[in-house]
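Help needed: design a sequence for this.
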């Protein structure tokens, strides 16, 4: 059996009872470590689970997953995923490949930022399409995500923005070399994401519904004891220090429900 097990958002204890029982019985347990991170390290998880974990980086998950799936025809193999296992398309692809190899699969769901974002007081059924905000470079500054935010805003829907993370990303220089060199890990902050959105708004030639005065909500380390939430104008959010990762940014709808406004007031 190949198991995909969600770890939730906080620490080692956020795994479900079902997930923990499976982890303890499996022949091998991998920890996926590039689509997201927990607030605790691999060693803390190993101590709590009482067994060793194998780090599964991007290369293993995307290029070498077939070897793991073939092994799962004869053994019980688990892949631990921060949040919910199906929050990233990588894991959906794994399930499809497992089906090709006729490997049995089981999913153990858990909380993810997709539902835990409601901790800021906005109602989940008022969220529109989720967007991802990538890191800009000197030569690459995509802004198509802003059109999706604007589309949600025009339909009076909130937008959850998932912010870019770079874990074991090869440097541009090493891509043409035989030996790979990797960048230091980095995690986009609400400050950086807001700065990019402000630049997009300021570069527009026509007026837009979203301005630098529009409300934004910054969230950090959702599900952890040191979780932080702040609400302010986009122009102010680009100067906000919200602490360690992971961060998420929400652009609320134009018109908020009275309950949403009352709840948000505590974060201003």
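Sure. Designed sequence:
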């Amino acid at each position: 059996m190949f198991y995909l097990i969600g770890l939730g958002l906080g620490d080692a204890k956020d795994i479900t009872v079902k997930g923990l029982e499976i982890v303890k019985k499996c022949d091998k347990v991998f920890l996926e470590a590039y689509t997201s991170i927990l607030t605790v390290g691999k060693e803390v998880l190993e101590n709590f689970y009482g067994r060793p974990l194998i780090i599964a980086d991007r290369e293993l998950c995307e290029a070498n997953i077939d070897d793991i799936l073939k092994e799962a025809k004869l053994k019980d193999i688990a892949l631990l995923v921060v949040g919910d296992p199906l929050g990233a398309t990588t894991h959906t692809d794994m399930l499809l490949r497992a089906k090709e190899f006729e490997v049995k699969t089981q999913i153990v769901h858990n909380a993810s930022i997709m539902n835990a974002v409601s901790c800021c007081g906005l109602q989940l059924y008022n969220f529109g399409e989720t967007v991802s905000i990538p890191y800009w470079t000197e030569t690459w500054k995509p802004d198509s995500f802003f059109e999706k935010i604007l589309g949600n805003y025009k339909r009076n829907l909130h937008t959850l923005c998932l912010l870019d993370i770079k874990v074991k990303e090869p440097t541009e220089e090493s891509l043409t070399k035989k030996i790979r060199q990797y960048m230091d890990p980095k995690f986009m902050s609400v400050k950086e994401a807001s700065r990019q959105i402000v630049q997009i708004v300021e570069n527009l030639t026509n007026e837009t519904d979203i301005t630098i005065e529009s409300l934004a909500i910054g969230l950090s380390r959702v599900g952890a004891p040191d979780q932080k939430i702040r609400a302010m104008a986009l122009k102010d959010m680009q100067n906000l220090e919200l602490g360690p990762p992971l961060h998420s940014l929400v652009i609320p709808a134009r018109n908020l429900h009275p309950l949403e406004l009352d709840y948000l007031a505590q974060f201003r």
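The first helix runs from residue 17 to 25.
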